[in-house]
Design a protein that fits this description.
2 copies of one chain form a homodimer. By secondary structure, chain A is of the alpha/beta class. Chain A folds into 2 domains: about 130 residues, Rossmann fold (3-Layer(aba) Sandwich), CATH 3.40.50.10860; about 130 residues, NAD(P)-binding Rossmann-like Domain (Rossmann fold, 3-Layer(aba) Sandwich). The longest helix of chain A has 27 residues. Chain A starts with a helix and ends with a helix. Chains A and B meet through helix 5, helix 7, strand 5 and helix 8 of A and helix 5, helix 7, strand 5 and helix 8 of B. Strand 5 of chain A pairs antiparallel with strand 5 of chain B, so a sheet runs across the interface. Chains A, B: One of its GO terms (cellular component) is cytosol. Chains A, B: Its EC number is 1.5.1.5, 3.5.4.9.
Chain lengths: ~300, ~300
């Protein structure tokens, strides 16, 4: 079966509306696009539209491709000072002359909804997350909803399960490993060198849960997946559609994997729509954090 | 063969003497023991002795078992203000009433040689470590020295190797996973639930490199290890010696593993002595960090 990411995202959006209402609607998301990367620009518009739909403040900012480090950090500082903005997202990829790590370290930690600041990455890795980056969060949200729908107990469903990750990036593979360990799964982190050494298939075939995030169209085929596995596809790749245009495909060859797997998430319509909502949800979580200290000051 | 941790530690200590000399000997380690945990007290004395041996300042501090959170954090602040101290180590276990995470978050990040502060844990997980916690650092130092001694190229020796970790703690298992990924190994993180699910042996048998840190005496036996594996034992357990005393054993049953493995690290005399030196080495690294800004101020 295919997991319907759009339906899960729609339900999550309803939850989010309630959460936003509960804090009086005071949350806002700012996105910073530097340069003209097309997928990043599309993502920025999607977040902006999603925020407006649920009545959340949105500030999509654009800087030219030749923006200096100071200009980007200055923009972040300006957004930090905006009381309507609870969450700030600097979109990737950044132009090559901008050092990611300096920009991420300049993010205000309480508005750093993608946990890119080392402090938030550390809290996550120590098992005390303030924010969970939206893509791995969305993957696990999908996994949880599928697990519930299959009638399994969320409290123990992942205990000792073989969770195989393909990809070791800071924004997906590594946080997903942490989230998997927190759910008591055995976690196998595979990547390019696993494949080079000829071991990728051994590991993917043994997976109870397979999460793939490498950006290689159709890398995972049916013969690489064990009977009954749950396969979550995080890749989004634009490929030639044979008619002069492009179409989006994932890292998983859904057609050959679906007959073997218990469930597989499609691309498009899988993890993507859930991620879009999760970004906004993290902005609401950030607003709650910024409200908390004020609440604690009420002495009576 | 057994890997001689003492010999590796002795060579590392010589390197360290040179590093200390290069910065004019200006480095110091402070250790904070809260309460009367015997292994922690033994560890504190070992660090103190090691520091004095190489002419490094050492400040072993003791607080009573009923010390308040404020007293512990106050002591840390006092050590932060001491210009002779470049590295601070709060020894574990802490008494149950003290919240570890609050104490670690109060460590001055530039003196936090065990990378316990979330900021340093984050820098490590993002692949930009300021400090590498001494126990996993020592395990990989041992692995590197063994790899060199076996005539393999350190640059590529771990590419696509199956690195199996048993244990998922914040101070060993998780940083070891990060260090393994940085060396291009496929990393498998096993733990209690892997064992409960009956999968531990499958994974340990497939390991090219097996690192064990769980605190279960003799958990890993020869039948659980593949031919030619390298086995690093991080466990240190005090067990009844059958004569009214105790003796130290690791998590690996060395007698049955040695004939199967390419190499195995013994306990005692394995990772432990290297760890002791690494703590001091991190204090020298911290001193370099604290010297760096002053050096940058010399304008000419």
């Amino acid at each position: 079966m295919l997991i319907d990411g759009k339906a899960i995202a729609a339900r999550l959006k309803e939850t989010l509306r309630g959460e936003l209402e509960a804090i009086g609607g005071v949350a806002g998301i700012a996105t910073v696009l530097v340069g003209e990367d097309v997928p990043a620009a599309v993502y920025q518009r999607r977040i902006d539209r999603g925020a407006r739909e649920i009545g959340m403040a949105s500030r999509p900012e654009q800087l030219p491709a030749d923006a200096t480090l100071g200009q980007v950090i200055g923009k972040v500082a300006e957004l930090d000072a905006d009381p309507d903005i609870s969450g700030i997202l600097v979109l990737r990829p950044l132009p090559a002359h901008l050092p990611e790590s300096r920009i991420f370290a300049a993010l205000p930690p309480l508005k750093d909804v993608e946990a890119l600041h080392p402090l938030n990455a550390g809290l996550l890795s120590l098992g005390m997350p303030r924010f969970i980056p939206s893509t791995p969060a969305a993957a696990f949200h999908m996994l949880d909803r599928h697990t519930e729908a299959a009638g399994r107990d969320l409290e123990s469903a992942f205990d000792g399960a073989n969770l195989v990750l393909v990809g070791r990036s800071n924004n997906v593979g590594k946080p997903a490993a942490i989230l998997g360990l927190q759910r008591n799964a055995t976690v196998v982190s595979c990547h390019h060198h696993t494949s080079q050494a000829g071991h990728l298939e051994e590991f993917t075939r043994g997976a109870d849960i397979l999460i793939v995030a490498v950006g290689v169209p159709g890398l995972i085929t049916g013969d690489m997946v064990g009977e009954g596995a749950i396969v979550i596809d995080i890749g989004i790749n634009a490929v030639d559609d044979g008619a002069g245009g492009v179409r989006l495909v994932g890292d998983v060859d859904t057609a050959s994997v679906e007959p073997v797997a218990e469930a597989v998430s499609p691309v498009p319509g899988g993890v993507g729509p859930i991620t879009d909502v999760w970004v906004l949800r993290n902005a609401v979580a950030a607003a709650k954090l910024s409200l908390a200290p004020a609440g604690q000051l009420v002495l009576r």
